[in-house]
Amino acid sequence: MSGRAGEKKLDLLITGVGGQGAILASDIIGKAAVVSGLSIRAAETHGMAQRGGSVVNHIRLGTDLGSMIPKKGADIMLALEPMEAVRYLDFLKDGGVIIVNTHPIIPVSVSSGLAKYPDVEEILDALSEKYLLKAFNADELAYEAGSRFAMNVVMVGAVSGYLPVPKEALLESVKALVPQKTIEINVRAFEIGRRNIEES
Amino acid sequence: MTTREYMLGNAAIARGLLEGGVQVIAGYPGTPSSEIIDTLASRRDRDYHIEWSVNEKVAMEVAVGAAWSGVRSAVTMKHVGLNVAADPFMTLTYTGTKGGLIVIVADDPSCHSSQNEQDTRRYAQFALLPCFDPSTPQEAKDMLPYAFEFSEKFEVPVIFRPTTRISHGKSDIELGEIPVKKPAPHFEKLLDRWVMLPKNARARHTQILSIQQPMEDALAESPWNSLELKSGAKLGVIGAGIASVYAKEALQELGLEASFLKIGTYPVPKKLILKLLETVETVLIFEELEPVVEEQVKMIAQESGILASILGKTSAYVSREGELDISAFLDALKKAFDLDIESDSEKLSLELAPRPPALCAGCSHRATFYSMKKVFGNDAIYPSDIGCYTLGIQSGTVETTLCMGSSISIASGLYHAGEKRPICCSIGDSTFFHTGMNSLLNAVFNKANITVTILDNRITAMTGHQPNPGVGYTVTGEPTVEVSLAELCKAMGVGSVTVVDPYKLEETQKAFKTAKDFEGTSVIIAKQPCVISGKRAGIRRVPYTVDPEKCEGCKQCIKFGCPAIEFDEENKCAIITSLCSGCGVCAQICKFEAITEVKR
Ligand code: SF4
Ligand code: SF4
What we know:
The structure holds two protein chains of two kinds.
Chain A lengths: L9 E8 L4 H14 L4 E4 L10 E8 L12 E6 L2 H6 L4 E10 L6 H4 L8 H11 L1 E5 L1 H8 L5 H10 L6 H11 L5 H16 L2
Helix pairs in contact in A: 1-6, 1-7, 5-6, 5-8, 6-8
Chain B lengths: L3 E5 H11 L4 E4 L7 H7 L7 E4 L3 H13 L4 E6 L2 H4 L1 H10 L5 E6 L13 H8 L3 E2 L4 H18 L3 E3 L3 H4 L1 E6 L16 H4 L3 H13 L1 H9 L5 E3 L6 E6 L1 H13 L4 E5 L1 E2 L3 H10 L2 E5 L5 H12 L5 E3 L14 H12 L26 H13 L29 H11 L7 E5 H17 L5 E6 L28 H7 L4 E5 L4 H13 L4 E6 L3 H6 L7 E3 L9 H5 L4 E4 L4 E4 L8 H5 L5 E3 L3
Parallel strand pairs in B: 2-3, 2-4, 4-5, 5-7, 6-7, 10-11, 10-13, 13-14, 15-16, 16-18, 17-18
Antiparallel strand pairs in B: 1-8, 6-12, 9-11, 19-22, 20-21
Helix pairs in contact in B: 1-2, 1-7, 3-5, 12-15, 13-14, 16-20, 17-18
The complex binds iron/sulfur cluster (SF4) (2 copies).
């Protein structure tokens, strides 16, 4: 079952905040990969860390080894929140691609005055020095698509062009995994996210 | 054609149990093990009994009863759950089993969601029982039917030990067949097996010792251990369970020639270890948590007079704390051979705000803690327990957390030691049913003057919203008796029991005052469904908003700590975000009546 030849390997890290839908985003990619005949390993944050805490998902396409991406091993980082992009940077390759939703989520540590949220522009500047940065407000794009809750699917659309998985398979998996009533919105969100990167 | 599916590790484990023909499954929720039962309970065509038991000891005994009738059964729990079930477990070794019996215990290296990082393989050694240590979710699934057969062949229960990265990893999984024919139960009255009188226990101890070697021999032949000898390689690597995968990947990346022994079962395959030791000069051992394999390798080397250098945790090449990964293996190699391997990159100099997990917006625990603190004050002592509410540490009302159910007994101990300060402890509904009940009974019996707060959010929330005896339905959603916490407490002899709605601050604080003044053990039951399970059950509340005209910027609402409330520094005014679930507590806290329901 190991090492099917000709497979494209890709290590993707999805970071964000518990409740943003990082697990659904990785499920969409994972399910589509399996349908396309790729082997896949993923690691997720569950339990304690999910309650509004920082979350990170590892997704490894075309591997039959472990689910954990080594340090400096990720080809791409998909960050659903700007500060959470920085928190896991040591997993990203030098020169790797980083797609960031610029909409910040303020942690209670900041709103209660115990810590400061770094300036988003400063974050983006720092990121663009070492990595190939694609930054945009995915919350707004999701709103355009019909619901802010589709932000995660906008981001999947944004990364879709980099994945060794056909677009159709990803769309099928969006349809299979989102609630029935929201399929239309989520398909639109996917397309908007994808176009946004193609045109940038 | 084979079927492949993208699955969570725990779903793969559930599948493995099905493919092994399981007939009874019991467990108590605990991260990272909970989704095994969640998955099996949500299947439509169930031909097995499945339950969330009230605690791990009970769950194990249910599984044992089933297995003694000759059917295949399994029990699931997290690592610390085995401490609760240790009593039946340690004697189960002697009785053995008839039907296959698998004790699934999920370890949590790095304490992602746990109070310690104990290694279940130690329990296996302690109990003289075999243990399976899967390296991938696929292997986890494939091991289970084998584990059932093994358990039946040797008539012993077996331990199956996934770690967080197996249980919460995802993978494409190749599925196998689910058997349709299952045996009918028949309990044979083998009194010398099932009644552990001293005379029987002695005989059974002899028996379990006598099968250690045959079990080890059988396991060594199993597909879960494999030895690849590279001719001329001076380095040997032994990887156990999931750590073997990290080691393998690192060796591949480096293109390093090394002989490799992958271990997936215990007692360890001594023959294979000896073969490896005879051909190499250095052995590096890579395993999660305790140096279990390493100690065995050292014993084998010593017995056979082999002088190879054995590197691992006892010599600090590999850390004994936290979880391993590829980098940890590279670091060990670097240290052992002075290799020049590129180190981690420098971090950006940006200062990040911490983002620890917090109670949800509108969580009733936050409201209860607020009132508790108002009434009992800074001086009081606040023992607490294990659940979402442990996050209440931010409210200043969580001052001890030892293990499930301990809050009430620790409170009692503090009181009996002569502490003069008021003592108010907190415990969730599920944790109370788990082992808190015993502690309350003891507190009443021994006259502890404490206040016990049962945070009754009508669910076992932290582990993913599993039902408990207080909610009125079982794991499969079937209606069942709804046990009343208040009646239970009264029946145990508590003199002051009050049920409150924690969203109503005045009422709740009044009740806390009465409880504080009560001479003896008093109980407050703060009853309000968890916001997440409440939402799923269709509870809809109108969200709240701040009137910027009325807001004075005093930040009282901010201090309450609800994640839906932010402060606009520019306009010196609080704002409520879309996270608001409409509990209305902040509106009661605001002295200026600036917070009201959103008008429709
Ligand atoms: S009503 Fe207030 S305290 Fe309750 S969830 Fe909304 S903002 Fe938070
Ligand atoms: S307590 Fe009232 S006045 Fe003070 S900041 Fe909150 S809303 Fe504004």
